[in-house]
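STRUCTURE REQUEST FORM
Protein name: Transcriptional regulator
Source organism: Streptomyces tsukubensis
Requested output: structure tokens
Priority: standard
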Amino acid sequence: MASPSPPSPFSEGPRPNHAFRELRGHLSPGEFAAAVRRAAGEIGERVSPDARYIGRVESGEIRCPNYAYERVFLHMFPGFGLTDLGFAPRAEVRGRRGSPGAHPPRLTVHNPTTVHNTATVHNTAVQGLTVQGHTVQSYEESDVLRRAFMTSGTATVATASLGTIGLPRPRGTSEGGPTRRATGRSGEAEVAAVEEAVRRIRVLDDRHGAEGLYHQAAGPLRAAYIFLDAGTARQSVEDRLHVGAGELAISVGWLAHDSGRFGDARSHYAEALATARMCGDNGVEAHAFSNTAFLARDTGRPREAVRAAQAAQRAARHLKSARLRSLLALREAGGWAGLGERTACERALGQAHTLFGRGPCDADPEWMSFYGEAELESLEAQCWSALAEWDRAARHAGRAADVALTRTPHFTRNIALYTAEFADGLARAGRPDEAAHAGQRVVSLLTEVRSPRVRTMLSTTMRTLLPHRGAPGVSEFLERCGELTEVG
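Status: completed
Returned output:
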């Protein structure tokens, strides 16, 4: 297939990538993005394209993909090269360093000793990348550091790798933080970096939990708001930057939330909500209210949880995602359960299942990748637990863990959480031997997952099982778990 001639690196504007559009065929941008994600999973790559990313490629805005996307695209279309796919040669794109408005990513590694001790990084040279001291500077994704994280499986390297989430340092700042107000305007590079930061934070959280990541993620959030303060040349760019900053605030808020820093989480969610309202984005507003409802439930304010969930549903009423509305109904159900309102809880649960049954669609927000059958079962389990229906809670939590292990084995943190919920439900339902067996599985996962939420649940299960030391497996579980958690 003939491919169009790549544009000059100094052309006045992007040229549409007709070759890539032809390869998409009859699929919608969202469907094609889903196909790219599936292909990435086949070769172990971690990319998160959505319909907007596909549109940016086809419009010519993305002239050459980063290395991870390149590997996925070449896997999807064997025998094709980048130019066959309509992209410009990588060397030509890299030659744009000195072009006006180009801001190469400046990536900070917060723990270089840890990274250098990873075998994958030793004596490795990558084009455009220097691993030296405290700073990594690259015009591409740091493939070496990404693979160091993927292969090591340790939370320590995950924390170090978080420094490579791809945010270009805003003009007028130093490594220690802002030194003066940025004088230039923010553009596409800053927006893309913020969006990629959100994706990478979510990947790290899914695999390792929030502890150790929260403070590392606060820096990119500060940078995002510096970008906003600097202003943009186009309204479309400013809108995207507001949305990206709002989603980043929610992601950082979630890390605080899952780490037990509830005051910080509440502040970040409020910041995200204000950002969403400034740019009039109902999707970010619904997301912020959803997380606010979850936080209110976790901090013993169930009536606030109901109100926040209902506000989220109002914000989402014109959005086309049934899955989003399903999750928001579950947030409301959790609030009603906390109030002991069984009838209202069951009504919201029924609505959640009905909406979930309509299936996924292109309008589903990218951040909802975690919300599948396993999460549905887990959130329902939490409702029954709040209503002291322990057998039902254990049954749904057990289903959540089984589904997660089968369908999303890379979501290690969620598997640990669901299994901890399962163990807690079994213990409270008077099935100590089964609870101990499930608890042992959670303890094994804590070598990879650092989540105070999970450890707190294990501590609760330990207290419940203390009177049952004589039951099979309970004593061994208490001994193993006691080394990792404290029974208060």
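Reviewer notes: Residues 1-12, 94-183 have pLDDT under 50 and may be disordered. The CA atoms of residues 323 and 356 lie 5 Å apart.
Form closed.
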